Amino acid sequence: MSLQDLLNEVETLKAEYDKFERGNKSAGTRARKSLQNIKKIAQDMRTAIQTKKGEEAA
Asked: Is 31 exposed, middle or buried (0-12, 13-18, 19+ CB in 10 A)?
């Protein structure tokens, strides 16, 4: 996972959330899915950063 993946997912969330705010209830489901994907990408990035920090310290 990369920063670009995270940014792409945030853009997807923004688009779906805007649709949801205009009354498209299905977009709410897609927005929640994007939030879940953002959570996963963020966790993967945190793990990668921590691993890299550990390797540099050793």
From this structure: buried
Residue pair 38/1 in contact by the 8 Å Cβ criterion: no
Structure tokens at 51: 């691993």
Q: Among 6, 25, 36, which Cα is nearest to 17's?
A: 25
Residue with tokens 């990369």: 2
pLDDT of residue 52: 93
Six-digit token string for 32: 């929640």
Q: How far apart are CA 14 and CA 31, in angstroms?
A: 8
pLDDT digits (tens, 9 = 90+) for 3-58: 999 999 999 999 999 999 999 999 999 999 999 999 999 999 999 999 999 988 77
Q: Could you give the angle at the alpha carbon of 17 between the alpha carbons of 11 and 25, nearest 5°?
A: 140
